[in-house]
Amino acid sequence: MTDSVLYSVLLLVSLGVVAAVVLYIVSKKFYVYENPLIAEVDELLPGANCAGCGSPGCKSFAEKLVNTEDISSLFCPVGGNDVMKEVAAILGKEVVERDPTVAVLRCQGSCEVRPKTTEYQGPRTCAISAMVYSGETDCQYGCLGDGDCVKVCKFDAMYMDETTGLPLIITDNCTSCGACVEECPRDIIEMRPRNKRDLKVFVGCLNEDKGGIAKKSCSVACIGCSKCEDICPKDAVIMVNNLAYIDPVLCTLCRKCVDICPTHSIIETNFPPKKVKKVVEKKVVENVAVIKEEVIAESKNIKTDA
Amino acid sequence: MSQPIIISASPHVHSDRTSKKLMYDVVIALIPAFLVSLYVFGIGAFIVTAVAVISCLLFEYLIQKFLMKTDVTIGDGSALITGILLAFNLPSGLPIWMIIVGSLVAIGVAKLSFGGLGFNIFNPALVGRVFLLVSFPVQMTMWPTAVENNTTMADAVTGATPLGMIKEGLMFGDTMTNITANLPSNLELFLGLSGGSIGEMSGLALLLGGIYLLYRKVITWHIPVTMLVTMAVMTGIFWVIDPESYASPLIHILSGGALLGAFFMATDLVTSPMTKKGMIIFAIGIAVITVVIRLFGAYPEGVSFAILIMNAFVPLINTYFKPRRFGSKIKSKIV
Amino acid sequence: MLKTFPKGGIHPPENKITAEKGIKRMAVPKVVNVPIAQHIGIPAEIVVDRKDKVVKGQIIAKSGGFVSSNIHSPVAGTVTKLDLIIDSSGYKKQCIVIRTDAKDPSNFEEVENPLKTDIELEPKEILQRITDCGIVGLGGATFPSQVKLNVREGTTLDYLIINGVECEPYLTADHRLMLEKAEEIVVGIKILMKALHLKKVVIGIENNKKDAISLFKKVIKKEDGIQVAALQVKYPQGGEKQLVRAILGREVPKNGLPLDVGVIVHNVGTIFAIYQAIQYDKPLIERVVTVTGKKLQNPSNFWVKIGTPIKDLIAEVGGLPEGTRKLVNGGPMMGKAIKNTDVPVTKGTSGILVIDEEEASRGEAKNCIRCGQCVFVCPMGLEPHLLMNLSEKGMYDKASAEDIMTCIECGSCSYVCPSHRPLLDYIRFGKNIVKKLETSKN
Ligand code: SF4
Ligand code: SF4
Ligand code: SF4
Ligand code: SF4
Q1: Which residues span the membrane (chain A) (predicted)?
Q2: Which residues pair with A201 in a beta bridge?
Q3: How many angstroms separate the first and last alpha carbons of chain A?
Q4: Torsion angle, CA of B90/B94/B100/B102, rounded to 10 degrees?
Q5: Which of C212-241 are b and which e, b meaning 16 or more Cβ less than 10 Å from the residue's Cβ?
Q6: Cα–Cα distance, B332 to B324 (Å, whole number)
Q7: What gap in Å lies between CA C284 and CA C277, rounded to an integer?
Q8: What is the mean pLDDT of residues A143-167?
Q9: Which of A296, C157, C210, C344 is the most interior residue, by most CB within 10 Å?
Q10: Residue that is last in its domain, among A48, A73, A91
Q11: Is A134 inside any structural domain?
């Protein structure tokens, strides 16, 4: 009895030894030379493997950085300028500094302002419902509310707001990797410059319908009235197909357009609040989740205003 | 219109068969066999079945609610079936705590740990049964006598199944003729007056249930027919060669878990292959393994093992026996 | 033994409640919204402008490419605007809105053209006429007919199959057309026989339309080379590939067309449209539409002008019944749910189906119980549960290797799944992505 135990133990041990030797030889034999710089660069990169740089992962981006002569067109949005500078230092190449950006949601069509006119039955993903039809509301440009963008965000920078049915972006977490922009079938999410203190002014609507139709489907829709275009001192507002777009480069954040928009379609974020009362209100709302994208506060303003 | 109209992708009509209905059809099909077992074993069969069913449902509820924190699906009928089938594979009179352990293994280990209904690889009831058989071999093979009022069979099967008797008899060098003399007749086997697990009793009742399932299109003929035919052919060959050391195919099919296995266990939707070709391969596999175990293995009965072994091959069978794609082979000729 | 395709298929309740209802002519609508994309392929190009007066049958949008089709004005009237209107795709699409001229007599005297059997045009002219008249496949796929008939030199083509199957539940448009216009359809068939130099034609009709089968048998008695085939009642018997397999036993290769096995398939409705185009130079401006639903007061079949808003049709059958939950453009298996009743009838609208709550809601999707039902019913020999899984997980390469592209979107799998899995939803999605990936690769 003890003999057989001994034999089996011996057999297993020797098997293990043989396997280890084989593995060692194989790994030696098939060793591929790799530029040590790649490992070094890879070390610097954030390791998020988010594909925001266009490469499938950090490692392959590191390879690309090492193997490309001119890396000025390559950029890691997650690491940002700091990381890129370090990379450039190691590789002795030039990088171009970029303005940090952040994702914004260009739709304010919450359940309240944009009534549902139909009911969708089927898999709840934006991609599939967009394939079937234009969504549960009468606006065929706005958010479908099934949260494909949230699912794809690797940095917990997004969540679905139950009350509005829209995704919210937590600006502080957003690395501007762009995954959500890619994913959204409606191209609702845009990368806009962060600016100082994260001040932003942008049109929160993509509805290209004529004014009346747009307004009927959603009360905060851009109706294409051109008032913002007229008032903008810097010509930053571009009107195409009944829809205003604010060029982030030209915009000086003067907020004239925000006030004049009759449907409150233009969103301003992180500006000091104008009315003291609302600050108090906001504090109460926000003491649970300290970081909250300002869009929600904004849309609340609109609701109380309207 | 009061409510908004619904939009969905085609098709806009659906058949009214639901998985729940399928499950309850299986339950209905098991009723005849249950009645027979009540007749043969009396209250013991009832207790075993009730305990198994209740503990299966309870474990499913508890695990889903408190451990997995998912939706509770005890209403879908699948835990109910697991309970019944587990009970049907146990001897009546098994200690209650063992039944509960068996149910826990069936539901907790074999079903829910794989992800619940539809994700389990092995038939949960059989896993429970085999677990008990391996852990408590003595109790699991203590076949109680049929209840008193059933005078015909009372002596003949005390403490042994027909298959067990054959195995034992052959081991001691007895000849088939002698053994068969002690066995219940084929007709008695068919009607259900022999020893064994609760649900294995009556070939007739199982056949009735099986026909109901076929009629309701819950199962197709592929698995049961292929399995039984293969078993008959294999055992038939041995029997023809040496009728003194091998039992007749009829005995093999009518006794033990062959019919229960063929109609109810092997055809379990989740753990059987999804193509007809695959089903045939699967059924042949079960039959071959069963016969090998029965004739040459240590256990008198092999259906449970055979089904579990073939369960493990189902993913492989599904990958290699695909339906023929339309248009993949052009055999048509243009005149 | 009735002919059928070998594998898969389902038999949903037929519900052909309008089979006995003769085709009525709908009153000319006050306004028509004519979409410029009514066919598969490139949308037509608008050639009229606001305020233009148009006469009935005038071209208002010209074919925009090879796979495209002309669009004609269904009424005499004035173009009021070029607007975006939701069509059955669920999205707003470019439409030409025409207000009917209440005084123009051509709008109101509908001449029932007498039967004309002599075919005067030469093959080349026939094909040209079909192109000019904007004929597309009226079975639902709306593939421009001239493209289908454009048989390159040297291609073997020996059979024309006429699709009178109408395997979709509820719909009876083709059935009624066959009963009422059998002789015209046979002339239409002869036109195609002449145009394509064909000798052999089979008309496939499902066996639940016995009256149509016997009628056609009578009408074709004197004709050479035309046969009628009674087919088993099984969905999707009317799928092109299934039909060719059922009637001739020829299997269209994967990703191939019936032409690859020497066959062309046309729907009976298309044949009738061709007949009218060739014999009377009448463009495709109206079609037969079944307006049906269990709760409707007065379901029936209608001759409807293209562009008629669906609400006009609904009004004609007694309005939407209480508790309506779904409107479908087409049949229940392959039709599209529409968003509102302003959606216009297009060349592909074979029926309007009004569904109530009970039929409309799809059960909650549960886990796949691996019952294999979807595999058994798939007429293309696919494994829908697997394809759904793969496209849900984003494994498109694998899905493509499992022949996802050969799915004909018949919906049999979703119909039959006892766990109410949205199989076709995901398969369609996967197909879209695979198609995109393939085009980007090339
Ligand atoms: S919100 Fe969008 S851009 Fe920002 S981290 Fe998430 S996926 Fe990337
Ligand atoms: S923003 Fe786009 S991806 Fe996100 S929920 Fe809305 S439609 Fe879906
Ligand atoms: S929809 Fe596609 S996968 Fe489903 S049954 Fe039809 S052909 Fe098969
Ligand atoms: S029919 Fe439904 S439950 Fe059955 S195998 Fe297919 S997907 Fe799974």
Answers
A1: 6-26
A2: A268
A3: 88
A4: -40
A5: bbebbeebbeeeeebebbbbbbbbbbbbbb
A6: 15
A7: 8
A8: 92
A9: C344
A10: A91
A11: yes
The two tokens of residue C172 are 């009876």
A119 contacts B4? CB cut-off 8 A: yes
Q: Which residue has the higher pLDDT, A89 or B286?
A: B286
Q: What is the Cα–Cα distance from C358 to B13, expressed in whole angstroms?
A: 10
In which element (H, E) is residue A67 found? Answer: helix A58-67
The model's confidence at residue A277, banded by pLDDT at 50, 70 and 90, is: very low
pLDDT at A252 over 50: yes
DSSP H/E element including B237: helix B222-241
Question: For residue A241, is pLDDT > 60?
Answer: yes
Question: Cβ(C161)–Cβ(C114) under 8 Å?
Answer: no
What global pTM score does this model have? Answer: 0.87
Residues B49, C160: Cα–Cα separation, whole Å:
63
Please list, residue by residue across A263-274, b when 16 or more beta carbons sit within 10 angstroms of its beta carbon and e when fewer do: bbbbbbbbeeee
> What radius of gyration, in Å, describes the C-alpha atoms of chain C?
21
For ligand 3, atom 7, the nearest C-alpha belongs to: C407
Which residues in chain C are contacts of B220 at CB distance < 8 A? 376
Q: What angle do CA C381, C384, C390 make, to 5 degrees?
A: 125
Residue B109: DSSP 8-state = I
ipTM score of complex: 0.86
**Percentages (nearest 5) of helix, strand, coil residues in chain C:** 30, 20, 45
Show which of residues 269-298 on chain B sit within 8 Å of chain A, judged by CB atoms: none
Task: Write out the two tokens for C71.
Answer: 């669009």
Given a cut of 70, the residues of chain C with pLDDT beneath it are: 110-111
Burial bucket for residue C321 (CB in 10 Å: 0-12, 13-18, 19+): middle
**Could you tell me the two tokens for A50?**
């988010």
Domain end (from C304, C331, C358): C358
The dihedral over CA atoms of A197, A201, A205, A208, expressed in degrees to the nearest 10, equals -150
By CA distance, what is A135's nearest residue in C? C90
Q: Are A146 and A235 in the same domain? A: yes
Enclosing domain of residue A200: 101-297
Question: Considering only CA atoms, which residue is closest to atom 2 of ligand 3?
Answer: C407
Which of C85, C87, C92 should one mutate to test binding to chain A, selecting the residue with the greatest count of A CBs within 10 A?
C92
A218 phi and psi angles, rounded to 5 deg: -155, 125
Residue A303 has pLDDT above 50, yes or no: no
Asked whether the beta carbons of A250 and A234 are under 8 A apart, the reply is yes
Mean pLDDT check: name the lowest of A122-126, B65-69, B128-132: B65-69
Any domain includes C3: no
A132 CB neighbours in chain B (<8 A) are 7-9
pLDDT at A100: 86
C387 and C291 in one domain?
Answer: no
C251 to B330: CB separation less than 8 angstroms, yes or no: yes
- Alpha-carbon distance B31 to C371, whole Å? 22
Q: Which atom of ligand 1 is nearest to the CA of A173?
A: 5
Confidence label for B160 from pLDDT (cuts 50, 70 and 90): low
**C288 φ, ψ (degrees, to nearest 5):** -85, 130
Instruction: Classify the phi-psi angles of C94: left when phi > 0, otherwise alpha if psi is within -120 to 50, otherwise beta.
Output: beta
- State the residue for tokens 């439409």: C95
Q: Is residue A96 part of a domain?
A: no
The answer to whether the beta carbons of residues A295 and A267 sit under 8 Å apart is yes
Name the phi and psi angles at B5, rounded to 5.
-75, 155
Q: Under a CB-based contact definition with an 8 Å cutoff, are residues C333 and C323 in contact?
A: no
Is C8 domain-assigned?
no
Q: How far apart are the first and last CA of chain C?
A: 46
Q: For chain C, how long is the longest CA-to-CA vector?
A: 64
Give the pair of three-digit tokens for residue A268. Answer: 């301003």
Would you say B318 and B270 are in contact if contact means Cβ atoms under 8 Å apart? no
| pLDDT at residue number B194 | 65
| Mean pLDDT, residues A76-80 taken together | 86
Examine the domain organization and report whether A84 and A135 are in the same domain.
no
